[in-house]
Design a protein that fits this description.
Helix 2 packs across helix 3. Helix content is 82%, strand content 0%. The chain is globular and about 50 Å long. The protein has one domain (2-388): MFS general substrate transporter like domains (Growth Hormone, Chain: A), CATH 1.20.1250.20. It has helices spanning 2-27, 29-36, 40-65, 70-90, 94-122, 128-157, 159-177, 193-197, 203-208, 210-223, 226-233, 238-264, 271-284, 292-305, 310-324, 329-358, 363-388. By secondary structure, it is mainly alpha-helical. It is found in: Cell membrane. One of its GO terms (molecular function) is transmembrane transporter activity. Pfam families: MFS_1.
Length: 390
């Protein structure tokens, strides 16, 4: 039991550094723009490009894992991840910065997928949803503590220090992982890559992968521009932004924890009510601009809905894979990460276009459109599952 606790803590810590590396850009948008003398919108493109490359590379790298030992694959991925963060810390110009983020994005998705596969393997059945939700919570912890702390360090010592710290923590964690995780674990047998991809022909999966895409597209229309929204839109001080990021991250952390409970109860059925709630919070946001504290509370409500889908949809993917596509376990573990990041890319790009064309007030309405589509897809999926008694 003690060993399970250590293994669980390490998997959560690994997701924390992955989340910290991905999300910290949101907290240091202004600092990067000043360093490289580019616009906020252009720095916001780093969020879009990272998420797009993450979504594109994850299935390709994941299927290449094949029958190789997952521990060896995880180690290699984190070596590249460390190199990517060091290159970010050293970046002399915006082009090199972009390249370093692409390197990091390529390996981040597969690393999450393998971590979740380890979680499913080491956890007893009654604790599986709990551990999966905590692995995802590593990203929320990065939002709640890592991004505000990283923003504060960037303001005081420079943003490059943040990426040196991420690289250092990763090295320490991999030393600990080498002594704790099982080294012989592989996924189910697959003789060809095409066999792993067969899972995409399943109608349940085809509908299911749309949900994280639309969910985070809706949220990231707003979240990508949270700092300019707080400072320029709601007129909070720069010093208060750290508090805003912390509070938003705390709401997201709570979201992940409640997500595990939803997965153990009614799962995707409950998400119908969540999307109604999320869509309402997005629609109301532009109406609250003249009441900044109410607008801030509305943003925290949005943060709370942000990750409620994580555990129900992850358990759903892995359940389909276990019953029908055992050769695709690692690939199915990556679906939430892949399509969430596709949603992040879509949402951040949409947010950038809206800010450039219509201003910050348009963000909420743009996000609500994606949430409305997510609700329709979810209703269709739940109807299909009821009809087929999944």
């Amino acid at each position: 039991m003690k060993r399970f606790g250590v293994q669980s803590a390490l998997l959560v810590a690994l997701s924390f550094v992955l989340g910290m590396s991905e999300y910290i850009i949101i907290g240091i948008l202004n600092d990067l723009a000043a360093t490289f003398d580019v616009s906020i919108t252009k720095v916001g493109f780093l969020v879009t490009s990272f998420a797009f490359i993450y979504a594109l590379a994850t299935p390709i790298v994941t299927v290449m894992v094949g029958k190789h030992r997952l521990y060896n694959a995880l180690t290699l991925l984190f070596i590249v991840f460390t190199i990517g963060n060091i290159l970010t810390a050293l970046a002399p110009n915006y082009t090199i910065l972009n390249i370093s983020r692409i390197i990091t994005a390529v390996v981040s998705g597969p690393a999450v997928s393998i971590s979740i596969t380890f979680a499913a393997f080491i956890a007893p059945p009654r604790k599986r949803a709990w551990l999966v939700s905590w692995v995802f919570s590593g990203f929320s912890v990065a939002s709640v503590f890592g991004v505000p702390l990283g923003t504060w360090m960037s303001d005081h010592w420079g943003w490059r220090v943040v990426f040196w710290i991420i690289a250092g923590i990763t090295i320490i964690l991999m030393i600990l992982v080498s002594r704790s995780l099982p080294k012989e674990l592989t996924q189910g047998p697959a003789t060809r890559i095409i066999e792993q991809l067969a899972i995409f022909k399943d109608k349940r999966i085809m509908l299911g992968i749309l949900l994280p895409t639309l969910n985070l597209a809706g949220v990231y229309v707003v979240y990508t521009y949270l700092r300019p929204l707080a400072v320029s839109g709601l007129h909070f001080s720069d010093n208060f932004v750290t508090v805003v990021l912390f509070a938003y991250g705390f709401a997201a952390l709570l979201s992940n924890q409640i997500s595990g409970r939803i997965a153990n109860q009614e799962g995707l059925k409950t998400m119908e009510k969540v999307y109604l709630f999320q869509g309402l919070s997005l629609l109301l946001l532009p109406l609250f601009f003249d009441f900044k504290w109410i607008a801030l509370l509305d943003l925290f409500v949005l943060g709370f809905t942000m990750y409620l889908l994580n555990s129900p949809i992850q358990i759903f993917y892995m359940g389909v894979a276990e019953s029908s596509y055992p050769q695709s376990m690692v690939l199915s573990s990556s679906f939430n990460s892949i399509f969430s990041n596709l949603g992040i890319a879509i949402g951040s790009a949409t947010g950038g276009g809206l800010v450039s064309s219509f201003g910050l007030k348009s963000l909420g309405i743009g996000g609500a459109v994606y949430t409305a589509i997510a609700l329709v897809v979810l209703l269709v999926l739940n109807h299909h599952l009821r009809q087929n008694e999944y």
